[in-house]
Amino acid sequence: MSTQRGFKKTPDKEISFQIEALEVSLLTSLIEQVILLLTPQNSKENNDPLAKMVGIDSTAKTPDDEVLLRLLPDAYQSDKQASAEFRRFTERSLRELKVKRANFVLENLPEPEQIISIKPKDFETWLTVLNDLRLALGVRAGITENNEEEISEDLEIDHARDIYSWLTWLQSNLLEEMSS
Known about the structure:
Blueprint: E1 6-9, E2 15-18, H1 21-38, H2 49-54, H3 66-71, H4 80-108, E3 116-118, H5 123-141, H6 155-178
Helix pairs in contact: 1-4, 4-5, 5-6
């Protein structure tokens, strides 16, 4: 059994990745939840074949869910109409891309104690999925830059903060290895 944990650049410019069984389960669960959240709803599916082909979603609107809003933010904070128009043309494809990337990482997670190799072309995918997980968990746990280190009275929030810190470490570790 190897003592390596996390990401490590290899001589062939790939990045190896290994985590413990509990961490694999945790990442699997988090990724599955984000996929579920991002998967577009098919109620009132757009029937225009051209709109469907180019990814226009006439039903796209600013999400009510704070996590979705963080993952799919308004493009223009000061212009709601321009933001709505931008969302109509981009949200479906952005959701699909995020789900595709999340599924890729989910399918390529290592088995417990297994070391996998990540190819340079996939570095960005891993990085963006880890970032999406951090953003989603941060919103759910109420983590902001101002209160990231606070200890709360709520054990669930404290556990979420621990997981958030671990995801931050994973993301930083990957970034460090990408630039080494």
